UniProtKB/TrEMBL annotation:
PANTHER family: PROTON-DEPENDENT OLIGOPEPTIDE FAMILY TRANSPORT PROTEIN, RESISTANCE PROTEIN MDTM, PUTATIVE-RELATED-RELATED. PROSITE patterns: MFS (PS50850), PTR2_2 (PS01023). Belongs to the major facilitator superfamily. Proton-dependent oligopeptide transporter (POT/PTR) (TC 2.A.17) family. Keywords: Cell membrane, Membrane, Peptide transport, Protein transport, Transmembrane, Transmembrane helix, Transport. The chain crosses the membrane at residues 20-37, 57-77, 108-126, 147-167, 173-193, 222-239, 259-284, 305-324, 330-356, 368-389, 395-415. InterPro entries: Dipep/tripep_permease, MFS_dom, MFS_trans_sf, MFS_Transporters, POT_fam, PTR2_symporter_CS. Gene3D superfamilies: MFS general substrate transporter like domains. Pfam families: PTR2 (PF00854). Residues 19-420 form the Major facilitator superfamily (MFS) profile domain. The keyword Cell membrane applies. It comes from Lysobacter dokdonensis DS-58. This is Amino acid/peptide transporter. The keyword Transmembrane applies.
Length: 441
């Protein structure tokens, strides 16, 4: 039995290979540390370090942008030199070091740089291992990234509750320290669970001629992924408003009274990760039934459906704001997040899975890094679009965001034939490599 079969055999946690649980909890603790620190960062700079709001915002924005840019460099380093396992371990150690450096006020910039650099190695190298847990014909491959995405959101849900509470009530350094401990917990889980993880893929320069993809095929696949990534950038221009203009609207355009209790604004932001955790098993069950009947939508179609779902969510807010007499009831924002999160689950984990499956041989981490680079570009676009919030009526702004998400949906739907061709090419390449391996054995 080959190594993939060993790691994909059985029906363990969530009826998935044991290695997925290792990657799930490693990622969960990494996200816990990242969002735990990020939750406190602006407050720490303005309240403890006495930075001006403008200075703090510039530092925060530069840090977030760098966080999503360094994986491009880290993915190349992982694929060409270090390998994925060593990249994850080194990245986790450097990030932990950066979190603990936050204990010193004078080392703020060094701490942020360490976290961003460690993340560059860690972020693309961890999820690029998921696909190798499964045989190519394993029906569980499709849902693996959805479950992995739940881990991201569990960490995002816990981080403000733990690190934020410790930082606000007991001191900023306790919150930062908790983030560092979380990163170390992820490192321990990953190290101890190594036997369940897939072996390293050969580096591109070490591939046998039979395993190398023809240049024309690689070019078509790379161009397809670039096109999908650009569509996702457009989508994120609307999607990333959830933590920006949506939060502002919750403050000025919403009646948050619930039986005499005023719901805190930040509670609405916790709806998204909670709904990801709640909705993912339902969607995976639905897609599994569709797959058993041969009716599961193709990846690009799923992603287009997700973009259209987010578009509908923004249209709902546009209609609510336009028709509200005074402040809209908070239930409408809750309904928005239900539609918004359902759409998100059709596009973001599906896209991550697509980039992993279509990664050219020897470039798994680089391909995942390219997916996260779409987050970098999408966040910049979202920031630019967010500047229109104060220049437009809120209903008109929400309608514009609905249009941006719908545009991404149309473009993804048009890309469906190209994605199907790339996946079919991927399957042929895998079959050819399997036959070559059998002959050489």
């Amino acid at each position: 039995m080959n190594s993939i079969a060993v790691r994909s055999a059985g029906a363990g946690w969530l009826k998935q290979p044991p290695g997925l649980a290792i990657l799930f909890f490693t990622q969960m603790w990494e996200i816990f540390s990242y969002y735990g620190m990020r939750t406190l960062l602006v407050y720490y700079m303005t309240k403890q370090l006495l930075f001006s709001q403008q200075h703090a915002s510039m530092v925060y924005g530069a840090y977030i942008a760098t966080f999503y840019f360094t994986p491009i460099l880290g993915g190349i380093v992982s694929d060409r030199w270090l390998g994925r396992k060593r990249s994850v371990i080194i990245g986790a150690v450097v990030m932990s070091f950066g979190h603990f450096l936050m204990a010193s006020e004078s080392l703020l910039y060094f701490a942020l740089a360490a976290i961003a650099l460690g993340n560059g190695l860690f972020l693309p190298s961890l999820p690029s291992q998921i696909d190798d847990l499964y045989a190519k014909d394993d029906p569980r491959r499709g849902s693996a990234y959805n479950f992995y995405y739940v881990g991201i959101n569990v960490g995002g849900l816990l981080a403000p509750l733990v690190c934020g509470t410790l930082g606000e009530l007991y001191g900023w350094h306790y919150g930062f320290g908790a983030a560092g401990v979380g990163m170390l917990a992820g490192l321990v889980i990953y190290t101890l669970g190594g036997r369940w993880l897939p072996p390293e893929r050969p580096k591109a320069k070490d591939l046998a001629p039979a395993d190398r993809m023809p240049l024309s095929s690689m070019k078509q696949r790379v161009l397809t992924l670039i096109a999908v990534g650009l569509c996702v950038m457009v989508f994120r221009g609307a999607y990333e408003q959830s933590g920006n203009t949506i939060a502002l609207w919750a403050d000025v355009g919403l009646d948050r009274n619930a039986g005499g209790f005023v719901i805190p604004m930040t509670w609405f932001q916790s709806l998204n990760p909670f709904l990801v955790i709640f909705l993912t098993p339902l969607l995976v069950a639905m897609w599994t039934k569709q797959a058993n009947r041969g009716q599961e939508p193709a990846p690009a179609k799923k992603m287009a459906m997700g973009a259209f779902g987010v578009s509908i969510a923004f249209l709902l807010l546009a209609l609510v704001d336009a028709s509200a007499q005074g402040h809209a009831h908070w239930v409408w924002l809750a309904a928005f997040f239900v539609l918004f999160t359902a759409g998100e689950l059709f596009i973001l984990p599906i896209g991550l899975s697509l980039f992993a499956r279509l990664a050219p041989a020897g470039y798994a981490a680089t391909s995942i890094a390219a997916w996260y680079f779409a987050s970098f570009g999408g966040n910049l676009l979202a920031g630019a679009l967010g500047t229109l919030w104060s220049a437009m009526a809120h209903a008109a702004f929400f309608a514009l965001m609905a249009g941006v998400a719908a545009l991404a949906g149309v473009l993804l739907r048009l890309l469906h034939p190209a994605v199907v061709r790339a996946e079919a090419m991927n399957g042929r390449g895998s079959d050819e490599r399997s036959r070559s391996t059998s002959k050489s054995g």
